[in-house]
Amino acid sequence: MGEKRDLIALFIDCDNISHRAIEGIIKELSRYGVVNIRQAYGNWSKENLKNWEEKLLEYAIKPIQQFDYSKNKNATDILMTIDAIDMLHTKKLDAFAFATSDSDFTPVVMRLQAEGIKVYGCGEKKTPKALVASCSQFVFTDNLLE
C-alpha cells in the first residue's frame, strides 16, 4: 500500500496572481501532496481575468464569482478567507495553499497554522515579508512562469 499523501486545498486570488503561473504552482504543490480542491476567485466579468478561462478548464479549477460591491474594495479576499475557515472545519485537509501576493491573507494563514495545518504560499517576489514568513513554505511564482 502506498504512502499517504497530504490533501491540499488551493485558493487562487486571480486579481493578484498571473494565469501563466498556475501550471508551475500546481506542479510545485504536487510535490507535497494531492491538490484535491482547486478554487479560483475573482470577478469573472472583468476583462483582466479573461485569460484565466483556458487555465481553469485545463487544470480543473473551480471558478468562484465575486462581484465588486463597491469601488476600490475587494470582496474576493474576504470570500477566500471565509471559504478557507469553513473548509478548516468541514473538510479533512492536511494543508492549504494560497496563490496570492496580497498580505491581507497573513491573518488567515496564521490562524490555519495555529490549528496545526501546513500552509503553502505562492506569489510574486514583491509579496510582503509578513505573508512569506507566515507560511510553512513559500514559492515565488516569478520562477514558475511558463
Tags for this entry?
about 25% strand, 6 strands, alpha/beta, Rossmann fold, about 150 residues
Describe the structure.
This protein is α/β, with parallel strands linked by helices and 146 residues long. The protein has one domain (6-93, 101-143): Rossmann fold (3-Layer(aba) Sandwich), CATH 3.40.50. The chain contains five helices and six strands; from the N terminus they run E-H-E-H-E-H-E-H-E-H-E. The protein has helices spanning 22-30, 52-58, 75-90, 106-114, 129-134, and strands spanning 6-13, 33-42, 62-65, 95-99, 118-123, 137-140. A six-stranded parallel beta sheet has the order 3-2-1-4-5-6, sandwiched between helices. The longest helix is centred in the middle third of the chain and has 16 residues, at 75-90. The mean pLDDT is 93.
Q: Given this structure, which CATH class is correct? A: Alpha Beta
How many structural domains?
A: 1
Helix content: 25-40%
Q: Strand order, main sheet: write it out.
A: 3-2-1-4-5-6
CATH hierarchy: architecture = 3-Layer(aba) Sandwich
Structural class: alpha/beta
What would you call the shape? globular
User: Mean pLDDT across all residues, rounded?
Assistant: 93
**Rounded Rg:** 14 Å
Low-confidence stretches: none
Strand tally is 6
Strand content: 25-35%
The end-to-end distance, rounded to whole angstroms, is 35 Å
Order of helices and strands: EHEHEHEHEHE
